[in-house]
Design brief:
- The chain is mainly β and 298 residues long.
- 2% of the residues lie in helices and 50% in strands.
- The chain is built from one helix and 24 strands.
Length: 298
């Protein structure tokens, strides 16, 4: 494992999220949620480009037919990076005044799974949705902030986190039908203790899975990445030079570079001086490759 470094020439995000490596373009995509922007960085030349968006993007995924599928506050949109043209393909199935789309990914058959974030802080209001054949269907709920979506290498286990509850769940996943069953706790983390704030280890945000089935999760406000073995055993901890990592993904031709988006939102001047890389995209090399991104068929 190599030292952590930031991508050069890339502007800091208020809240970077949803990174993925596009193998056809040899490029990294990610979004800035409050910055209302889509970003792309190409590995061969280090070129950066960004596109403004009309509302907050929760996540982005590549499409089989070309272009991208964006989850914006008001629905799911096709986006063409070449022309900047967008077309809404599904309306948001929730109250957009209090919720927005958040973490999301396509499964192996191209169905988009995307959760929501309850902005009024009420737990139990957010949910997880599946987008397939032009329809959005609610498949799970009862949480405050949907995050941590990822699948095991064989596709038979799906991971899903509730960031506000400090817990990661695992489900048995029916690959052909896209069904969830046998929900159980995979990992739980201690909440913040006002009597010992320095001991706080963060809460689970975005995640990715490697080829050995290791579940890598960014610990928001915990300044670290954690890797859990498939049996839930903590196998690795990577300290980071920023307090709020948001999501890892695997990239480059060998899928052995771990890219990590981060946040600077809410940090004061003194904190930003101590964390000059807050909001940057970080990267490090790892020994076990990750799984390639799934393309959405929508």
């Amino acid at each position: 494992m190599t030292a952590v470094e930031p991508l050069a020439g890339v502007p800091a995000c208020a809240l970077g999220e949803s990174p993925f490596w596009h193998p056809r373009e040899a490029a990294l995509y990610w979004v800035d949620i409050p910055g209302r922007a889509l970003h792309r960085w190409t590995g061969r030349d280090g070129a950066h480009r960004q596109w403004p968006l009309p509302t907050e993007p929760g996540c982005v995924a590549p499409r089989l037919g070309g272009g991208l599928l964006l989850a914006l506050r008001d629905g799911l949109w096709h986006f063409d990076p070449g022309t900047g043209l967008t077309r809404r393909v599904a309306k948001a199935p929730y109250d957009t005044a209090t919720q927005r789309f958040n973490d999301g990914k396509a499964d192996a058959l191209g169905r988009l799974w995307v959760g929501t974030y309850s902005e009024d802080g009420r737990t139990g209001e957010a949910a997880l949705y599946r987008f397939d054949a032009g329809r959005i269907e609610r498949v799970a709920g009862g949480i405050g902030a949907s995050n941590g979506l990822a699948w095991s290498p064989d596709g038979r286990t799906m991971y899903w986190a509730d960031t506000r509850a400090h817990v990661v769940y695992a489900f048995d996943f029916g690959v052909s039908g896209g069904t969830l069953s046998r929900q159980r706790e995979f990992a739980r983390f201690a909440p913040r203790d006002a009597a010992a704030p320095a001991a706080y280890g963060g809460r689970p945000d975005g995640a990715a899975v490697d080829a050995d089935g290791g579940y890598w999760v960014a610990m928001y406000e915990g300044a670290r990445l954690l890797r859990f073995a498939p049996d839930g055993t903590l196998s690795c901890e990577v300290p980071l030079p920023v307090r709020s990592p948001t999501m890892p993904c695997f990239g480059d031709d060998d899928l052995k570079t771990l890219y990590v988006t981060t946040a600077r939102k809410g940090l004061g001047a003194d904190e930003l001086a101590r964390e000059p890389w807050a909001g940057a995209v970080l990267r490090l090399r790892v020994d076990v490759p990750g799984l390639p991104v799934n393309f959405a068929h929508a």
